[in-house]
Design a protein that fits this description.
Blueprint (H helix, E strand, L loop, with lengths): L2 H33 L1 H8 L1 H4 L11 H11 L4 E7 L7 E6 L5 E6 L6 E6 L4 H11 L3 H26 L7 H4 L8 H27 L5 H11 L25 H12 L6 E4 L8 E6 L9 E6 L6 E5 L6 H14 L5 H39 L1
Antiparallel strand pairs: 1-2, 1-5, 2-3, 3-4, 5-6, 6-7, 7-8
Helix pairs in contact: 1-5, 1-6, 1-12, 5-6, 6-8, 8-11, 8-12, 9-11
Length: about 375
């Protein structure tokens, strides 16, 4: 790289880094926490996720719903989560009498409610909102998205700045001289670990754009399928009102039918319709697959619990399959703990990079000011 181009690249790296630094710090730090969300939450609140004792038989889900409606005054059910693990509790999300979304944990063997929390006030709900929206909804989503995009350019420009002029200097660029001055250690840390992290952080930052920009998500579908994204989680045809099934076996019949259609081991999520036109959506994650987040779909009549349509994962378009894979790639869960640890470490480094980069800039600015002062 010639001197003029390197100088221009340095300015791009500097000013994009300074303009996005604070947001990158927040997003990267919260992202590192979210990598181990399940493990941390389980450690802090074991009773919310694990039953005290495994029983012989589980209560029907409808019994659990009835308990919530009577003891917790839950009006509208939103989502029901059941798990293949016999030690896991059932998770239910519903609206209380004041219209607030509340999260409940229920022992499937006794039907007892073992925990509850307001969805928006749960620790990891706040962390996720901060990570994606900076707690200010759509404006925050735009800010984090633009900062992620800028950070991707910072990473690319940083890689070109890191690349040594001569191959013989490569070893120096790959190590941190820990016994040197603070200024040198800071520069080495920023530069060296930036090189080791650049590919992982580039993948994380680019996949993160999926939640910020619709054009980016649609771009994936156009690139792979040649068409815009189609809603696979929704049936377009209205549901005709029919005789209602006995509510004492309504949700349990949905779960049983899902397990019959998709007999593999998996966790099931039942989503209630948001309006009068849509059916009940059920997703069953295939736990026997190496790549996580492979869910098949089934639709049920919201009045009779009769199965309407099925969409096995194998029938998804390539675009849908890639979109499903983006979440485990972004969070580092794609290959279990090895990739989770990598995602955690590089996210922590990303949180430090605006700080170390700022210190480098301040140091150079001070040095330049001293030169000017001496010259005058």
């Amino acid at each position: 790289m010639n001197k003029t181009l390197k100088k221009s690249m340095g300015k791009i790296h500097l000013w994009l880094g300074l303009s996005s630094g604070l947001i990158v710090f927040i997003v990267a730090l919260t992202g590192s926490i979210l990598v181990f969300e399940d493990e941390i939450d389980l450690f802090i609140n074991p009773e919310f996720y694990k039953v005290a004792e495994i029983g012989n038989n589980k209560k029907p889900i409808d019994h659990t719903i009835m308990v919530l409606q009577e003891s917790q005054k839950v009006g509208k059910m939103l989502r029901i989560y059941t798990f293949d693990d016999p030690e896991r509790t059932i998770q239910i999300m519903g609206k209380n009498s004041e219209g607030q979304t509340q999260f409940f944990s229920v022992d499937p063997y006794s039907g007892k409610v073992v925990g509850s929390a307001m969805q928006n006030s749960r620790f990891f709900s706040v962390v996720l909102d901060l990570h994606r929206h900076l707690l200010v909804e759509d404006i925050g989503k735009l800010i984090t998205g633009c900062s992620c995009l800028l950070f991707a350019f910072v990473l690319i420009s940083g890689f070109f700045l890191w690349w040594p002029k001569k191959i013989k200097n490569l070893k120096q660029r790959l190590t941190v001289k820990w016994d040197s001055s603070f200024k040198r250690v800071n520069w080495d840390f920023h530069s060296t670990f930036g090189f080791y992290s650049v590919l992982f952080l580039l993948v994380i930052s680019l996949t993160g754009l999926t939640w910020s920009f619709e054009w980016f998500e649609n771009g994936i579908y156009y690139l792979v399928d040649g068409t815009a994204k189609k809603a696979i989680n929704k049936l377009e045809n209205p549901i005709k009102k029919d005789r209602q099934l006995d509510k004492t076996a309504f949700y349990q019949s949905i779960l049983n039918a899902t397990d019959s259609v998709y007999p593999y081991r998996g966790n099931v999520q039942i989503r209630m319709p948001n309006d009068t036109m849509n059916s009940i959506l059920v997703l069953k994650v295939h736990l026997e697959k190496n790549i996580p987040n492979q869910s098949s779909i089934a639709f049920f009549d919201k009045n009779t619990a009769k199965i309407i349509a099925t969409k096995p994962y194998e029938s998804f378009t390539k675009g849908d399959k890639i979109r499903r894979a983006i979440f485990p790639i972004h969070t580092g869960s794609i290959y279990g703990y090895p990739t989770k640890i990598i995602a955690f470490l590089v996210s922590l480094f990303a949180a430090t990079s605006p700080i170390t980069g700022l210190l480098i800039w301040l140091g150079r600015k001070k040095k330049n000011n001293l030169k000017i002062h001496k010259a005058s």
